């Protein structure tokens, strides 16, 4: 067995993250890591396809601690490259992406100095990992934050064709409002534990954490250290009614909207009853279309978070 490094980190920088911001900020981040006495190796990746081989090689060399420099898509890519892992892994994140929603749950801000300091002064939590399976097992992905389908997936499908701009948290909202007039939801069946819902839902989310879409909270009851996925289903309604309830998404009160059903279970199955090619995304990355099954792996890896963070869902 390869001996694991006890005190050395492996840093993955995705150059495209945040519209190129990750690469521009890397010299400042590297300086901050060195000032904090953090020893590390770094790989700067130009493309998503490079991340898998890079992370696999690092694990084979004995690395068990990883720092992801980028946004939600970068973290998603690193996790999918690392798992299944031979041993327990520890992660830390420096958020320099577009939405930075995973970091938002823990109060990890875009301030590079603070983000780097937290790696040394923060605490370790046992973070859950999500799985999503399509096509009876033929397609499989991990996720660390929130999975969404319906309008949410449709929006990410459109955004995946365009370059991301760093720091603009309103991009998702702008695309979402325009997509309301284009997306035509079909009937779906949602099986969550011993509960089953059937109907026309504009969007469905399953979350480990609370924020997605640039600061929206579709799953305010999520617990990253828990044992269940937080599921939120919004029934289709008139466009103006849906738009008028957008403020609830930013206030964390969307569950009060009468068209919303919230559930919690270790897993959820979403069946596209009329084969309308249900679009699905996870962690802001468009995955494809179709029925799927999502599940949670409690406490799958360690994450460094600010010392002051407490899980308010408990």
Which terms summarize this structure?
15 strands; 29% helix; 9 helices; 15-stranded mixed sheet
DSSP strand (E) fraction? 25-35%
Topology pattern, helix = H, strand = E: EHEHEHEHHEEEHHEEEHHEEEEE
Based on Cα principal axes, name the global outline. Answer: globular
The structural class is: alpha+beta
How helical, in percent, are the residues?
Answer: 25-40%
Structure explained in plain terms:
By secondary structure, the chain is an alpha+beta fold. The protein is 29% helix and 35% strand. The chain has a 15-stranded mixed beta sheet that branches. Helix 1 crosses helix 5 and helix 2 (48-61) packs across helix 3. The chain is globular. The protein starts with 7 loop residues before the first strand and ends in a 9-residue tail after the last strand. The mean pLDDT is 90.
